[in-house]
């Protein structure tokens, strides 16, 4: 070994219970310079070091950093001496930091994946740490100080009520938890559904305001045509509710008739866990505005069903040479009569031509209200994108917009085994075979999607540990098409999913079981196989003789029958199916036939058998067409026996003049192989 060549210094890091930990170990030389580092998740480290004296430092998440062994700093750390020989250090035990653990679940007893857990210093109220729960709802919060814990999250398609440990509504009321190195468990924390606030927004004259907005705790909802709003998933405790009119016709305020400039004076609305608070109404005063000074562009917004478009965002874009450089130069909203007005286009410097888009603004990704249908953003000229939009000028003119309306599909996803698949979903593919969106099922297995543009779709259903399928109980290529119409629901598009992997078309052996030839297994069709691993076995009786898709038939298999077995491993489950058993393995027959209109005189030769050993039954078919699945369509002509290599098959009906495609189906006896042999013949009459 060359002088001073590096050798490996190895070791392992464990906690007090002997569990391997995640972290890193670095080696420093006498000058304090880091010469090697190894990060690990399994507790094992390897450091390549030259001869010399070193000190090692451990650091890791959730563990107290220390120097080898059990030392607080580099000065007091033990020295590891390297002298040309690899060495393994004794297991190094490190201490976990004090921490708190627990599990977050919903009221159905299901773990909440992705719940947010925040830790605050119990003395000062300062936030110390946060954690997002794993798929099992588990969390670990590290702190050397006593903490108060705040829990929030989403489940079953909605927000859960925020709470503090232990079932407290506010941080001051929360019970402190003292972390320990062994881990202080707070057990199961159950989050109830969030509360809600509902009410009605009108003008001060009592007229319902459509498309006004109410907000509380960062959550908002728009009013429907009756002025009704519903804010869901509201945190527990006191909330400030604000009311505004994005259209700009009415003055914003806080509940209860408090000016928007006086946040401190707003009347608080108290929301309990899962509580529905109603009657939080507002009557807004109209905004005092001056008549427009010159109108450049105006019009009315409607949808294709004739409904007036209230509160739609109207955006005006410039028209640069490079369309990707376009920008918005003016905006407004359609009012409660569906009308919009733009007055400043003639005063936008350097711009004389524009393109205009009407959309639902921030809400364009989904329907406006529950039970409503999505409206499609539309450009000037009632076009679908900037590229094809009509150009407008600043000269006064009227430009109306008609927005396409989506249709909807609804149904349910259940499990053949009873109950509902976990994480059930429905996805849609349009007539161009493009994905057109998807939706998750609700807690009762139902779904309702109202975002599909008019047209034809196929529908796919899926869920965790279940076989996906297409409507109607089909594989992708056999899916039934549904037609979606504007503003209409297509109902009853449902599926019951299976957990079992099954063959919908049986596997089959391809080729003839003749000595010296190769046979194969066609895997058939399965209810799922796109992401599966398909494996093959060849059986003689119950004995596996090969595990490949094809098999060279050897003389050792003479007189035996073969069966193919296919296994489809889909990961969450697997299924098996077997082929029909072949005829007995034999030697390949060769057919010579002299055909007349009424019969076939046949000579059957089989190497290496002598003629007197050649016995078989032969059925003669004519190929008269092709079936839908691509197989030949056969017409039986007759059947006969072959003795000592020869025989005659007499036809039930005479063959006509011309060309014929015949199949001689041989069922051999003894060592004569079985199989189908095709021949073309031409009859002259």
UniProtKB/TrEMBL annotation:
Taxonomy, superkingdom: Bacteria
Source species: Nocardioides glacieisoli
Keyword annotations: Carboxypeptidase, Hydrolase, Protease
SUPFAM superfamilies (alphabetical): Carboxypeptidase regulatory domain-like
InterPro entries the UniProt entry points to: CarboxyPept-like_regulatory
Biased composition (Basic and acidic residues): 365-375
Gene3D superfamilies: 2.60.40.2700
Keyword Hydrolase: yes
Protein name: Carboxypeptidase regulatory-like domain-containing protein
GO MF entries: carboxypeptidase activity
Keyword Hydrolase: yes
Membrane-crossing segments per the record: none
Annotated spans, Disordered: 357-376
């Amino acid at each position: 070994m060359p002088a001073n060549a590096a050798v490996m210094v190895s070791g392992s890091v464990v906690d007090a219970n002997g569990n391997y930990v995640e972290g890193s170990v670095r080696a420093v030389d006498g000058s304090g310079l880091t010469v090697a580092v190894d990060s690990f998740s399994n507790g094992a480290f390897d450091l390549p070091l030259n001869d010399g004296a070193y000190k090692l430092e451990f650091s890791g998440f959730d563990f107290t950093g220390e120097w080898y062994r059990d030392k607080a700093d580099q000065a007091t750390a033990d020295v590891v001496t390297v002298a040309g020989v690899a060495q393994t250090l004794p297991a190094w035990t490190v201490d976990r930091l004090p921490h708190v653990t627990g599990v977050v679940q919903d009221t159905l007893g299901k773990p909440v994946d992705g719940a947010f857990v925040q830790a605050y210093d119990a003395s000062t109220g300062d936030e110390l740490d946060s954690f997002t729960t794993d798929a099992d709802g588990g969390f670990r919060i590290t702190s050397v100080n006593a903490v108060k814990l705040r829990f929030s999250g989403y489940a079953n398609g909605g927000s859960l009520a925020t709470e503090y440990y232990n079932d407290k509504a506010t941080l001051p009321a929360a019970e402190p938890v003292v972390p320990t190195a062994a881990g202080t468990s707070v057990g199961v924390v159950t989050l109830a559904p969030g509360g809600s606030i509902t009410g009605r927004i009108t003008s001060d004259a009592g007229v319902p305001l459509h498309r006004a907005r109410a907000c509380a705790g960062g959550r908002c909802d728009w009013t429907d045509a009756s002025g009704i709003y519903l804010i869901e998933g509201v945190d527990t405790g006191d909330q400030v509710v604000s009311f505004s009119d994005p259209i700009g016709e009415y003055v914003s305020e806080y509940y209860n008739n408090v000016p928007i400039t006086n946040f401190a004076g707003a009347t608080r609305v108290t929301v309990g866990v899962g509580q529905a608070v109603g009657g939080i109404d507002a009557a807004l005063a109209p905004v005092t505005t001056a008549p427009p000074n010159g109108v450049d562009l105006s019009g009315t917004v409607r949808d294709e069903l004739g409904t007036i478009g209230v509160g739609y965002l109207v955006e005006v874009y410039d028209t640069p040479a490079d369309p990707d450089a376009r920008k918005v130069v003016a905006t407004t909203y359609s009012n409660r009569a569906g009308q919009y007005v733009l007055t400043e286009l003639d005063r936008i410097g350097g711009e004389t031509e524009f393109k205009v888009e009407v959309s639902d603004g921030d809400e364009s990704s989904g329907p406006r209200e529950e039970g409503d249908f999505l409206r499609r953003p539309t450009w000037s000229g009632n076009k679908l994108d900037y590229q094809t939009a009509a150009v407008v000028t600043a000269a006064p003119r009227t430009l109306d917009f008609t927005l396409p309306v989506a249709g909807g599909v609804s149904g349910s996803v259940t499990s053949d085994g009873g109950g509902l698949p976990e994480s059930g979903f429905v996805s849609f593919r349009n007539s161009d075979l493009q994905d057109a969106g998807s939706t998750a099922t609700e807690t009762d297995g139902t779904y309702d999607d109202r975002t599909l543009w008019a047209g034809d779709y196929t529908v796919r259903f899926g869920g965790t540990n279940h076989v996906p399928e297409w409507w109607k109980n089909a594989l992708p290529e056999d899916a039934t098409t549904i037609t979606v119409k504007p503003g209409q629901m297509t109902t009853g598009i449902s599926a019951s999913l299976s957990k079992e992997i099954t063959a919908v078309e049986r596997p089959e052996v391809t080729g003839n079981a003749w000595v010296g030839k190769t046979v194969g297994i066609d895997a058939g069709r399965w209810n799922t196989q796109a992401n599966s691993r398909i494996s093959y076995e060849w059986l003689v009786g119950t004995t596996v003789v090969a595990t490949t898709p094809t098999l060279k038939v050897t003389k050792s298999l003479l007189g035996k029958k073969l069966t193919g077995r296919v296994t489809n491993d889909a990961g969450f489950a697997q299924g098996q199916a077997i082929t029909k058993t072949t005829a007995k393995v034999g030697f390949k027959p060769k057919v010579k036939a002299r055909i007349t209109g009424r019969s076939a005189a046949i000579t059957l030769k089989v190497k290496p058998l002598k003629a007197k050993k050649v016995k078989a039954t032969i059925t003669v078919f004519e190929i008269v067409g092709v079936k839908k699945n691509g197989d030949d369509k056969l017409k039986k002509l007759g059947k006969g026996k072959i003795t000592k290599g020869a025989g005659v098959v007499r036809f039930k009906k005479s063959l006509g003049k011309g060309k014929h495609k015949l199949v001689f189906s041989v069922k051999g006896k003894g060592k004569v192989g079985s199989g189908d042999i095709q021949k073309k013949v031409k009859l002259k009459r």
